[in-house]
Design a protein that fits this description.
The complex is a heterodimer of chains A (258) and B (243). With 258 residues, chain A is mainly α. Chain A has helices spanning 2-7, 12-34, 49-58, 62-93, 95-108, 117-124, 128-152, 156-164, 170-205, 212-221, 225-253. Chain A is globular and about 70 Å long. Chain A starts with a helix and ends in a 5-residue tail after the last helix. The relative contact order of chain A is 0.13. Chain B is an alpha/beta fold and 243 residues long. In chain B, strand 9 (202-207) and strand 10 form a beta hairpin. In chain B, the strands form 2 sheets. Chain B has a 6-stranded mixed β-sheet with strand order 6-7-8-3-9-10, sandwiched between helices. Classes of the chains: A mainly alpha (258), B alpha/beta (243). Chain A binds chain B through residues 157-158, 160-167, 172, 176-177, 180-181, 183, 255-258, and chain B through 53, 55, 72-74, 77-78, 80, 82, 84, 86-90, 97-98, 100-102, 129-131, 145, 149.
């Protein structure tokens, strides 16, 4: 799996340029800290980040924070994806449902997921469920729209083909035409949702739900900005890992594409 | 012998359209017969085929297959103008489409798939994706998919119109061979009169709105036919005069 993913990204030129980009970023970062381009004491020192990471690890804060975040991340992502896909697909394939829900969707869609935090706390208190609820809302809309649009854009001739060969019922056509034909759009939505979930997760945790966002908030409160960077890097690592796995699955599922 | 398919007094018009595409339209296809319908663009050839395939329902008249009301699908199989393979299925999976849900064993299904792929010369390419095929190969798979259900009649909607001349001529020969080997009747829609004369036992010319059969010609030349024969050319010219 990893070999496949590395294949297109490991030409010497790309590696050298990639490392150069990181080094330039580190130099600029260190300069901003040394020459105080921002308010003194608020820019973490990049060379102290490894030590901060070790401290967070040995103090027993890092791993539980990641685990805690993963709980509501997985629940929120799963719930939002399943509901977004199901309702999007149903709306795109059922005329009456499409008509009955369209104004409601237009009304609710512009509300940012974080606006629901108030209700999340009221209904679920400061808990995994509350954070998962907020994450699910953000992920829901991404998947709803990508699925709706992907299904709506299916070439109707494939349905005619299925019907011509006796695969005419709603369920059979859904399985044999709708799902595979819209899979590129659906998978693209799921992948966007994976990223969207992280953004919402950290915002939700800043309000007190245990996890990496909360640890970042606590560290920032005592001026431990290197520790904040540690959690930012942890988020990046987990996200990169999930995205890599998803990319692999997506490539496998869509191997029929030219 | 009883006709394999009969369209009896069909009347059809599209929703909200004023004009009938066909009205009181009747044709029948005998078992094993190769019948072509030719006509200009928009005359309703493809609509007639879609009616015969059961994809659209007539407002008037009936369609009978082997003397029975045409319900179910397995006795009529359609070959589309664009080949129309599902891009997310391999060649073998595309051919399998019409067999899914039938009361057949796995062995029987696999046997049938291999049989029709062999007949159409696509067995070697059965693991390929549609985007890896040429236009002619796509049509062969379309024909194989239709043959796999062992239909009484193949309904073909200008199947060779999207391929180049050399491929088309090759496919016409292939189709003749496949048709003779399968024993199925063929209802073939085309705008190419020479193609119709070369392939068919009978050619019908469609004209007007609603469409009527302006001419019907029996083609009783021996097979295999010579594409460039003078008789075939004269017959095609005669058919063309009725367009």
């Amino acid at each position: 799996m990893f070999g496949y993913l590395m294949e297109s990204n490991t030409t010497p030129r790309r590696v050298i340029l990639g490392i150069t980009g990181v080094l330039i970023f580190l130099i600029l970062w260190k300069s901003s800290e040394s020459f105080e381009w921002v308010r003194r004491g608020t820019m973490p020192d990049p060379f102290l980040v490894p030590q901060a990471m070790l401290d967070e690890w040995t103090s027993g804060r890092l791993v539980p924070a990641v685990q805690s975040s993963m709980i509501h991340y997985i629940w929120g992502l799963g719930l939002g994806t399943i509901l977004g896909f199901s309702i999007g697909a149903f709306a795109a394939t059922s005329r009456w449902f499409d008509e009955i829900h369209i104004y409601l969707a237009r009304l609710l869609r512009p509300i940012p997921p974080l606006a629901w935090v108030v209700f999340a706390i009221a209904w679920f208190q400061v808990s995994h469920a509350g954070a998962a609820f907020v994450i699910a809302i953000g992920v829901f809309w991404v998947n709803y729209f990508s699925t709706y649009s992907a299904v709506k854009n299916i070439d109707p001739r494939y349905y005619e083909l299925a019907q011509a060969f006796g695969q005419g019922s709603y369920v059979i056509k859904f399985v044999k035409v709708t799902l595979p034909a819209s899979s590129p759009g659906i998978l693209s939505g799921i992948r966007t949702g994976v990223g969207q979930a992280w953004m919402t997760l950290i915002a939700a945790e800043l309000l007190g739900v245990p996890g990496m966002g909360q640890e970042m908030n606590s560290a920032a409160g005592v001026g431990a900005y290197e520790a904040v960077v540690v959690y930012m890097l942890a988020i990046s690592a987990v996200y990169a890992f999930t995205d890599m796995i998803f990319s692999f699955i997506e490539t496998r599922l869509l191997r029929w594409r030219p | 012998m009883a006709p394999v398919v009969e369209l009896k007094h069909l009347g059809f018009r599209y929703p909200n359209a004023e004009n009938w595409i066909v009205e009181d339209f009747c044709i029948s296809v005998a078992p094993g017969e190769f019948l072509s319908i030719v006509g200009g663009s928009g005359v309703g050839k493809s609509t007639i085929l879609r009616l015969a395939a059961g994809l659209i329902k007539p407002q008037k008249g009936t369609i009978q297959v082997r003397g029975e009301s045409a319900k179910g699908r397995r006795r009529r199989a359609l070959v589309f103008q664009d080949g129309r393979l599902m891009p997310w299925r391999t060649v073998e999976q595309n051919v399998r489409l019409g067999l899914e849900g039938l009361d057949l064993s796995k062995t029987e299904i696999n046997h049938r798939i291999d049989e029709v792929l062999e007949l159409t010369g696509m067995l070697e390419l059965k693991e390929r994706w549609p985007h890896q095929l040429s236009g002619g190969q796509v049509q062969r798979v379309g024909i194989a998919r239709a043959l796999a259900v062992k239909p009484d009649i193949l309904l073909m909607d200008e199947p060779f119109s999207a391929v180049d001349t050399i491929t088309r001529q090759g496919l016409q020969l292939e189709l003749t061979r496949i048709w003779q080997a399968s024993g199925a009747a063929v209802l073939f829609i085309t705008h190419d009169i020479e193609e119709a004369a070369f392939l068919s036992d009978r050619v019908m010319v469609l004209r007007g709105q609603p469409a009527v059969i302006a001419n019907e010609t029996i083609v009783n030349f021996d097979r295999p036919r010579q594409r460039n024969s003078e008789d075939l050319f004269k017959l095609a010219t005669k058919i063309a005069e009725n367009l």
